[in-house]
What we know:
Elements: E1 11-15, H1 43-55, E2 60-64, H2 74-81, H3 83-86, E3 92-97, H4 102-111, E4 116-120, H5 126-133, H6 138-150, E5 154-161, H7 170-179, E6 183-188, H8 199-202, H9 206-216, E7 219-222, E8 230-235, E9 240-244, E10 257-260, E11 265-267, E12 275-277, H10 279-284, H11 289-299, H12 321-324
Parallel strand pairs: 1-2, 1-10, 2-3, 3-4, 4-5, 5-6, 6-9
Antiparallel strand pairs: 7-8, 8-9, 10-11, 11-12
Helix pairs in contact: 1-2, 4-6
S-adenosylmethionine binds next to strand 3, strand 5 and helix 12.
Amino acid sequence: MIDPFGRTITYLRLSVTDRCDLRCTYCMPERMTFLPRADLLSLKELDRLASAFVRLGVRKLRLTGGEPLVRRDILWLVERLSRHLRSNALDELTLTTNGSRLEQLAQPLAALGVKRINVSLDSLDAATYARITRGGDLAKAIRGIDAAQAAGIAIKINAVALRHDNLDTLIDLAEWTHRRDAELSVIEVMPMGTVEADRLDQYVPLTEVRARFAERWTLTDLVRSTGGPARYVRTDEGGTIGFITPLTHNFCGGCNRVRLTCTGQLHLCLGRDADADLRAPLRACGDDRLVDAAIMAAIERKPERHAFDYGSAAPAVARHMSRTGG
Ligand code: SAM
Ligand code: SF4
């Protein structure tokens, strides 16, 4: 799959549900309206679609959400998809989670071939964590991280930089992460969907975070091409930190990814509304010819770059991050 700008698409992020057991203030409103359950594709259908992407050249598959681990029978889907690891069609099967169910699921996920997991954790202070997530239990998330590491899964911690909630404690979070032999990625809050908070008020350009880190450590840029928006540095103490900066840097030139929602909408760019419906071709016929054709036609329409901009008060895209999973 090569798009009109010469970018080869090798990475699919699959949102298996838009539901979540948390309500992070930057991600969704407190009274979030979720999709009717009847609109969700079945796990079998998600497997069929994801497998079509693997057949067409995807080498890395990330399950996300909403919270992927709250989808019922999620291990069934992971088990199905793990056949692509065994056949070497896939290089990596991974997921992004808030960690709330990792304590129970880390071991089976590891047994199915999951080697790395991103866990979102914005604060190490229980009260701040509960406030940001609107009710999340920090100890539970940490037990999940412990269980994953005990199962041999490498952990990357994702933290959204929030001016009033965690900016002053990101160095502590980095140190905690590095002590656990994990990596930290800091993320700029993106204007996706409406939430109660004023995003401009929450937003911190990561140049500012990096400057704070540079007061604590000598930072060396790492050359690492993930095709994504992250730039990595190594601290003089040996820890790795990623900066995910859609607002202050344009990362679109090397973009290698597309996103599929749990209703079968293919999003061609995180920061644009361009999408394609794969549910109709999936359900129209038992073999995958129509699906393959719809995917290839969609890739032809992948936008050149995102439209994120804090110049306007309106969100750049109307959907919440929980629809596409970041
Ligand atoms: N529930 C899982 C989790 O939190 O890791 C997976 C889905 S969540 C939507 C994926 C990532 O998107 C998380 O790291 C979260 O912090 C991030 N995120 C959510 N809304 C965001 C926003 N408006 N701007 C930047 N990152 C956001
Ligand atoms: Fe849920 Fe993840 Fe969004 Fe937080 S960031 S509300 S954990 S989907």
